[in-house]
Amino acid sequence: MKTIGIIVLLLVQISGLLPGSAIAQTPDSPTPIWDRQTKKFISQKQLRKKIIPATALLLATDLKTPVPVHQIIQIIRHLESNNRNPALILSMIERDKQNAFQIITQRNKNENLTAESGGLEILLTWNNSGKPPWQQIKPLFDFAYEKSLPLIAADFARHEVGSIHQRGLSGLPDDVKAALLPALQPPLPPADVIRHKARLRGDFCLDLPPETVDKLILAHRSRTELYRHILQEQRQQFPDQVPVLITTPDHRIKDAEGLPLIRIAFQDKLDESDADFVWLTTTRDRPELCQN
Fold first, then answer.
1. Which residues is 283 bridged to in the sheet?
2. pTM of the model
3. Residue 178 lies in a domain
4. How far is CA 98 from the centre of its chain?
5. Is 251 left (phi over 0), alpha (psi -120 to 50) or beta?
6. What CATH number does the domain containing 123 carry?
7. Which residues contact 184 (CB under 8 A, 6 or more apart)?
8. Is residue 204 domain-resident?
9. DSSP string, 127-152
10. What is the rounded (10 degree) CA torsion for 261, 264, 269, 270?
11. Residue 268, exposed/middle/buried by CB under 10 A (0-12, 13-18, 19+)?
12. Of 107, 128, 127, 125, which is closest to residue 117 (Cα–Cα)?
């Protein structure tokens, strides 16, 4: 049985700290990947070398812009070709839809299909989810089925999010409550509160009532800790594997105990990213959602 590399693809809007001088280099840079440690641009070949020994990966991209699916597949393919067979941990899919992956696997087996995720979008109710168009993300799932990569739904179900909104920490699902509480009980540092409030103001284009803000921040933090818990749990179950999480940049996953992460962010600019590597992408102009 092949060693399974667990890739946690976090499709995330990552904010970080990159020098202003680096931003000036981006338009003409032939190597659009910024290495935050060395403060230099590196090639795709250099990035591939750096991720091979990884114990865990985080791939972050903004879901409001075209998702760089082909670059994501390149990274997964490189791990798979080096016998790190990644398992995709998907933060954009609710845990109660895990069975959808098995249904498509069985369908493909019955019909002798090898790389087909058609129909999965119906089981996931994707088109009613507010996520990017299915045809944009479908190649990632096709590749996963072609290579028989594990797919893991990592988000709370909608009723679980509702329970957290209504009951706070006591509303956490029983199966993960004990694991998440230690990280969620301490109060947030003031800087993190400011960051969350700014994010919510950008999402809703207005200042929400304090009680609503507190509930939304707790739900967001709970999701972040759930993703980290799933990473850690996968590593414990499969010690020889490499976890990779797919989520959105506003989830800043801290290194799980004994599970250092390599974070790769797909962005159209370098500013405000705490990722280890920023892979610069080209995005279409989009309207300012909060314009009056």
1. none
2. 0.84
3. no
4. 17
5. beta
6. 3.40.50.11550
7. 169, 172, 218, 221, 222, 225
8. no
9. GGTTPSPHHHHHHHHHHHHHTT--EE
10. 40
11. middle
12. 107
Which residue from 83, 82, 77 is spatially nearest to 59, judged by alpha carbons? Answer: 77
- In sequence order, what are the residues at sequence separation of 6 or more whose Cβ sits closer than 8 angstroms to the Cβ of residue 60? 10, 11, 12, 13, 14, 247, 248, 249, 263, 264, 265, 266, 275
Spell out where 5-95 has E strands. Answer: 5-7, 33-35, 40-42, 57-61, 86-94
**Residue found by looking up tokens 């641009």 in the block:** 41
Q: What strands lie across the sheet with 33-35, from one edge to the other? A: 40-42, 33-35, 277-280, 262-267, 57-61
62 token code pair: 């903004």
- The count of domains in the chain is 1
Which amino acid does the sequence have at 156? F
Q: Is residue 52 part of a domain?
A: yes
Q: Find the distance separating the first CA and the last CA of the chain, reported in whole Å.
A: 57
The answer to whether position 73 is within a domain reads yes
Q: In the 8-state DSSP scheme, what is residue 55?
A: S
Which domain, by its residues, includes 150?
A: 5-156+228-280
By DSSP bridging, strand 33-35 and strand 277-280 are antiparallel
Residue indicated by tokens 């168009």: 133
Q: Return per-residue pLDDT of the chain as tens, 292 residues.
A: 444 455 545 444 333 333 333 433 443 445 689 999 999 999 999 999 999 888 889 999 877 667 889 999 999 999 998 988 788 999 999 999 999 999 999 999 999 987 789 999 999 999 888 888 999 999 999 999 999 999 999 999 999 999 999 999 999 999 999 999 999 999 888 988 888 888 888 777 778 888 888 999 999 999 999 999 998 898 888 877 788 898 888 888 876 666 788 999 998 888 767 789 999 887 555 555 565 5
Distance CA 109, CA 116 (A): 11
